[in-house]
Amino acid sequence: MRTYSNTLEVKSTLKHLFLGAVAFCAAACSAPTEAPVEVSAPAPEKSHNNITEAEIIDGWELLFDGQCTGNFRKYGDTVIGKAWVIEDEALHLDASSKEDWQTNSGGDIVYQAMDGTLREFENFHFKGEWKIGERGNSGIIYLIHEDTAQYPFCWMTGLEMQVLDNGTDSTEGHPDAAIHKHRAGDLYDINASPEGAAMPAGEWNQFEIIVQEGRLTQILNGVVTVDRPLFDEQWRADVAASKFHEFPGYGTFRKGGIALQDHGDPVWYRDLKIKALTTSPIVSD
User: Fold this and answer.
1) What is the pTM (predicted TM-score) of this model?
2) Tell me, what CATH number does 242's domain have?
3) CA dist 32 → 5, 19, 27, 28, 35 (Å)
4) What is the pLDDT of residue 104?
């Protein structure tokens, strides 16, 4: 009976404590109080521009997180042009105000190191997604050498994976779509890509650019569009037969930076990642 009595006492005590707590909370809610401190809601999970811990350990870098453009600046400058904005988790060129063939307050932008210098790669695997507006033109330029005194534009030294609206049976596309080696996925003015690799304007395309030990591979939507050696006799002959023959620095730098081109048309980029490679073979995703 003693144990039973103790149990009743404990229950009675807990009951009074609970009722007291309820009364205290009711009084506190009805009494005047200071404005509650706002608690920030957790940031919504991003659909794009993410990088995993495993990728970081494996050496991948995320160029753009969907929230800040700080990893980029204009070629030959210290800041990014105001026409490059963030839209729907993408790095977007707002080409509503054109100046000649480029965008007012735009310009080609380069991936920079923390000290503001050009981030350079020799052997690398670069991948991401792009989307082009109707009849639009842009490009992903790599192995660029930044010396504006000799090379006012990054495409005077860097190779370009063409970003273009090729058009469809019912849409016109960009005028360059009618020019051999100027279509989406091409190594611009050097090598043509297979037909049908690119998605129509307004749809996302997945790209990969791999440079390793003097060999280039370009991939668009899982299709290998270019696979060739660089810097050999055939390379020099192909450059000499192209529009770039007048630029002695084009395609000669074995180490260089990454740029996204302003060609005066709306374009979007996202999920941009790059990895410096060793001499080990690379297998595409």
Assistant:
1) 0.82
2) 2.60.120.560
3) 42, 22, 10, 8, 9
4) 87
Annotate 156-187 with DSSP letters as a single string: GTSEEEEEE----SSS---GGGGSTT-STTSB
Rounded to whole angstroms, the Cα distance separating 226 from 219 reads: 7
Q: Give how many domains the chain has, as a whole number.
A: 1
The end-to-end CA distance of the chain, in Å, is: 74
Please identify which residue in the block is written with the tokens 């043509």. 192
C-alpha–C-alpha distance, residues 144 and 121, integer Å: 10
Closest CA to 138 of 114, 173, 105, 163: 163
Predicted confidence at residue 185, as pLDDT, reads 98
Asked whether 135 and 173 are in contact (CB, 8 A), the reply is: yes
What is the extent of the structural domain holding 98?
53-276
Per-residue model confidence as pLDDT tens digits over 140-165? 999 999 999 999 999 999 999 999 99
For residue 252, the Cα-to-chain-centroid distance in whole angstroms is 25
Compute the distance between CA of residue 85 and CA of residue 268 in angstroms, rounded to an integer: 10
Q: Is the pLDDT of residue 19 over 50?
A: no
